[in-house]
Specification:
The structure is a homodimer. The first copy, chain A, is an alpha+beta fold. Chain A is built from 10 helices and 14 strands. Chain A has a 9-stranded mixed sheet with strand order 4-3-2-6-5-1-12-13-14. A 4-stranded antiparallel sheet of chain A has the order 8-9-10-11.
């Protein structure tokens, strides 16, 4: 069997800014942020590193970027707080770690990884998760690091909408921010990571699909690595990530068939969003049923990124190969 | 298509008392507790009620019984607190609700149901979940209701073992308590519910598989309803409940084949435990790889219960039919 060609795919959420509200400057910032994350993650793969390290590096970059709803720039919940969820999964043995409802660690994805590597558990939530993060000495930041005026205003707008009784405008940018990464390394191993601030004005304590293994995050060397973004409640009810795995193992579907089918299946029942997935051959699928999904791919041919439907843009002669 | 014959199956956890430590009196108490829960749940089905109501009634009964690790009699975490998780799922449309890390509601399963029916979310954790339970007026109880000397002593024993550096004795009774129910109603609908206090001396904030849909709890009218009990971390990494669903849909396996296969698969990697499952034809599977699993079945023929390997005991001419 030939040595796999490493590949990294990332998403910055299916909650893209409406096309009519997007400016060229803003669009360039998003592409630049995606490229930064791809560069950080792919550097690991290019030097022969592990898929797990690559997805963590990519997600750390997205967490530090206030444009994306994870870490710095996370959205606010109904009580004006920020509660973050994150997960990592290693396809070699399906070891996994996740946190839910934390605030303080600069990189929630590192908290998730620490749960996997330094605890007996897979998922820690709330005050106990925070205590764990402090005890192991994760880098913390104060509220001023995480807060952005844009997310605060989005909360005020949503609370005002609820007070006024106005209809939900279905704004995906308010609802669906998440970041994630999936990778195949040169040894043929897969990994996935997901991190999110959740939904603007979510109930305190709400946990979405990101830290629910099999829903928002999954990785198994036998099949695929998946990170999802979208209406988390629906993604949980359809076990979206594990459904792709199951269709590949038991239904003999290709990665693209499985990933596209489940994203299409959940669209009519309110499951707006999308996902990124990679299999052991390096095939990548980036399906979404929303108006856009911040996304990108890095491989030996370069970096390619996209926001709305259509081919990815960037370096490399075949930037259309991995289109949506 | 003929009218389905309703059936209810329950478990009181795979963490059974070692056979050599079980007394006839204790054994009779467990059988009685299981029969109480079966009676409560099956009464709903017998009068033409819904599977969802039946599993909730059965779990409420088990939560009130201090013999089982859920609600009253829940185990203590490493900090001497009790944190409970619960989940319900309705096979009609896979609506789902769960809570993690709560203390106070007499019946955590009702908190899970309230998340499903009275919130926009699927999973609430920690302080936010507690706040939700208070706001909606769920019946609460104080610490004296939930505490039992036996569980408190189990915590002291485990903490002492850790201090002394003694090897883990692998006592399943300390590790694997959970209760759950699955049902098929006369309309052909399926439902599942699970409730637990988790593992003795677990980390504060630890969430097991019970409220992770696709791992410890799943229900879909197309395939099956499942409630699991065992080493939750492993059950999450194998997406045990959704794996049974997937094998039935995509692998054309029967309920028994799928359920027995996954329970066998996780045994050698540390995934001790078991599960209960029912399909749309009323087939029931109760596989476990631990030394026992408190379990029972109720249908038109009566109630049958079991603890260790071997046929169930109770009313009805075919009490062996649904053996393990």
């Amino acid at each position: 069997m030939p040595t796999p060609r490493p590949v990294l795919a990332i998403h910055g959420g299916a909650g893209t800014i409406r096309r009519e509200a997007m400016t060229p400057e803003k669009e360039a910032q998003y592409h630049a942020g995606l490229r930064d994350a791809l560069s950080a993650g792919y550097a690991v793969l290019a030097r022969g590193g592990q898929a797990l390290d690559a997805v963590v590096e990519a997600v750390k970059s997205l967490e530090d970027n206030p444009l994306f709803n994870a870490g710095r720039g996370a959205v606010f919940n109904a009580a004006g707080g920020q509660e973050m969820d994150a997960a990592v999964m290693d396809g070699r043995d399906r070891r996994a770690g996740a946190v839910a409802g934390i605030f303080g660690p600069r990189h929630p994805v590192l908290a998730a990884r620490a749960v996997m590597e330094r605890s007996d558990h897979v998922l820690l939530a709330g005050a106990g998760a925070q205590q764990f993060c402090r005890e192991i000495g994760l880098e913390h930041r104060g509220p001023e690091w995480f807060r952005t005026d844009q997310r605060w205003q989005a909360l005020q707008d949503e609370l005002e909408r609820r007070r006024s009784g106005a209809a939900d405008d279905g704004d995906e940018a308010r609802r669906h921010g998440t970041v994630g990464a999936v990778a195949l390394d040169a040894k043929g191993h897969l990994a996935a990571a997901t991190s999110t601030g959740g939904m603007t004005a979510k109930a305190v304590g709400r946990v979405g699909d990101s830290p629910v293994f099999g829903s928002g995050t999954w990785a198994d060397d036998r099949t695929c690595a998946v990170s999802a973004t979208g209406h988390g409640e629906l993604f949980i009810r359809y076990a979206v990530a594990h459904e792709i795995d199951a269709r590949m193992r038991w239904g003999r579907q290709s990665l693209a068939e499985a990933a596209e089918a489940i994203v299409a299946e959940i669209a009519p029942v309110g499951g707006s969003g999308g996902l990124i997935a990679v299999d052991g051959l390096g095939n990548v699928a980036l399906p979404f049923n929303s108006s856009g999904m911040y996304r990108g791919i890095a491989d030996a041919e370069g970096l390619r990124t996209g926001i709305y439907a259509g081919p990815l843009v960037g370096a490399g002669p075949d930037s259309r190969r991995h289109g949506t």
